[in-house]
Specification:
Layout: E1 3-6, H1 13-22, E2 25-28, H2 30-47, H3 73-84, E3 88-91, H4 94-109, H5 117-128, E4 132-133, E5 136-138, H6 147-157, E6 162-164, E7 170-172, H7 173-179, H8 191-196, H9 200-230, H10 250-263, H11 267-271, H12 283-286, H13 288-309, E8 318-319, E9 325-326, H14 334-362, H15 385-401, H16 423-454, H17 461-471, H18 484-495, H19 498-504
Helix pairs in contact: 1-4, 3-6, 4-5, 4-9, 9-10, 9-13, 9-14, 9-16, 10-13, 13-14, 14-15, 14-16, 15-16, 16-17, 16-18, 17-19
Pfam family, one: Lyase_aromatic
EC number: 4.3.1.3
Subcellular location: Cytoplasm
Length: 521
């Protein structure tokens, strides 16, 4: 089994993906445990002091003015977690919960939260046992932490609430912990806040989105190149001298290089390169690198935000190097919310231009000799007409999801928390947007592959490899048939990286960024 060392200074995007999606085992380091024990000592010193300290010996949020006596502090922690585990809606995806828990454990391992070592070790044991708290979609405003989602996880740490066990069955958490040999934790001072006051849900979904969009943008370069080929477009507009020397945006330079690589040695392109049938290709073909490249540049910005957050210690209050426990506002999700909203915008734009290219392949007046809707016997057969409708519906949904969540704010907690980021909501809609983008690109790939096969000349070595990859799951052109399973199969090949891998087997296709999340820049 793959293992991931829970070192707060080196945990990477690759590590998060390995734990969230591949169930890699998390290993605690001796250095982390020593740091946790050292910082806990500072909290226990303050817990015995006469002066109230927020989160240690007081109530929470708008109730922070009440000093809580020692006899009630264990109950205070239980009450905090129980009351905050108030989520509603559908359960979120298992990979999101696992990413959230890993990232919360990473922050606990910094020592800044002041928890006892047994809290961290038990939290990691739950993760390693494959026990997944049931976390509901609504309950975080992206400020004061992802409160309800994180509280649902903390509730399981206490032996309460519901979980998915390692077989995916919903069960009582106490039963699941007992079956795994894990003893629930009785929380002490500060630990309730430490387990709930973080941006881990937002960050986890951003990191998952970075990995997904990395693959999808390269798939978009491939689908665009295949559409150019299918529509008798030109590759001359993707020559390197037209990009970095003239307009030095790195993303569009990279996307153009990918498209030029995909079209290299294409007999289809060569068959009409001396023709004057078109003076210029339509924008959806000619400007594909500019659009997908701009998305790459936006992804780089989001990657920088995520990299910095991946080195943060988000809690309120936090334990400083001096041993002082200090209140702060670092739990505010604005940096993440803005990045998440930006990615939803560029996802919608990449989907939109892909749909425009697909539309051209459907239209006999613009498709350069292809049959209407790529139908086998147009009139008797409808071809890919409704596949395009479905694609258009998903693009429309993506555009609605591009409306930013971060410009909204609903004051809460008796106006103590009077400006919130809505970053969790931004992350949830980004996941839906990326799901739609995957399907939209799959429809374009499906249509472009079909169109290429209808041409008299073969495609390039790269596009031929992609077509052959699709043909391992779906047949080529022919009379009308039930398309939904075929579109689902191509969507799966797009999502899991098979499409990009098929191209990379023949040529070096550039990705967006290094997948490792570097330290703060």
């Amino acid at each position: 089994m793959t293992t991931v060392a829970l070192d707060p200074d080196t945990l990477s995007l690759t590590d998060v993906i390995a734990v969230a999606r591949d169930d890699a085992e998390v290993i605690l380091t001796a250095e982390s445990m020593q740091r946790v024990a050292r910082c806990r000592f500072s909290v226990e010193q303050l817990a015995g002091a006469q002066r109230p300290v927020y989160g240690v010996s007081t109530g929470f949020g708008a109730l922070a003015q009440r000093h809580i006596p020692h006899a009630l502090r264990a109950q205070l922690q239980k009450s905090l977690i129980r009351s905050h585990a108030a989520g509603m809606g559908e359960p979120v995806e298992r990979e999101v919960v696992r990413a959230l828990m890993l990232l919360r454990a990473r922050t606990l391992a910094t020592g800044r939260t002041g928890v006892r070592p047994e809290v961290l070790t038990t939290y990691v044991e739950i993760l390693n046992a494959g026990i997944t708290p049931v976390v509901y979609e609504y309950g975080s405003l992206g400020c004061s932490g992802d409160l309800a989602p994180l509280a649902a996880c903390a509730l399981v740490l206490m032996g309460e609430g519901e979980v998915l066990d390692s077989s995916g069955r919903v069960t009582d958490s106490a039963e699941a912990l007992a079956a795994a040999g894990i003893t629930p934790v009785e929380l002490a001072e500060k630990e309730g806040l430490a387990l709930t006051n973080g941006t881990d849900g937002m960050l986890g979904m951003l990191l998952l989105a970075l990995a997904d969009l990395e693959n999808l943008l390269t798939a978009a370069d491939l689908s665009a190149a295949m559409s150019v080929e299918a529509l008798h477009g030109t590759g001359q507009v993707f020559l390197p001298e037209l990009f970095h020397p003239l307009r030095p945006h790195p993303g569009q330079t990279l996307s153009a290089a990918n498209m030029l690589t995909a079209l290299k040695d294409s007999p289809i392109v060569a068959s009409h390169q001396d023709s004057d049938h078109l003076v210029q290709d339509a924008y959806s073909l000619r400007c594909a690198p500019q659009v997908t490249g701009a998305a790459r540049d936006a992804l780089e910005f989001a990657h920088q935000v995520a990299s910095r957050e991946l080195r943060a210690s988000i809690d309120n209050p936090v334990v400083l190097d001096s041993g002082m426990v200090s209140s702060n506002g670092n739990f505010h999700g604005a940096p993440l919310a803005h990045a998440l909203d930006l990615l939803a915008i560029v996802s919608a734009d990449v989907a939109s231009i892909a749909e425009r290219r697909t539309d051209r392949m459907m239209d006999v007046h613009r498709s350069q000799g292809l049959p209407p809707f790529l139908a086998d016997d147009a009139g008797v057969d409808s071809g890919l007409m409704i596949a395009h409708y479905t694609q258009a519906a998903m693009v429309a949904e993506s555009k609605r999801l591009a409306a930013p969540a971060s410009v909204d704010s609903i004051p809460s907690s008796a106006m103590q928390e009077d400006h919130v980021s809505m970053g969790w909501g931004a992350a949830r809609k980004l996941r839906r947007s990326l799901s739609s983008l995957t399907s939209v690109l799959a429809v374009e790939l499906y249509a472009a592959a079909w169109a290429i096969e209808l041409r008299e000349e073969p495609g390039s070595p790269v596009t031929t490899a992609v077509v052959q990859q699709l043909r391992t799951r779906v047949p080529g052109p022919g009379p009308d048939r039930f398309l939904s399973p075929e579109l689902a199969a191509v969507t799966e090949l797009t999502a899991d990286g098979s499409v990009v891998a098929a191209a990379e087997a023949l040529a070096s296709m550039e990705h967006t960024l290094p997948i490792e999340a570097a330290g703060p820049s």
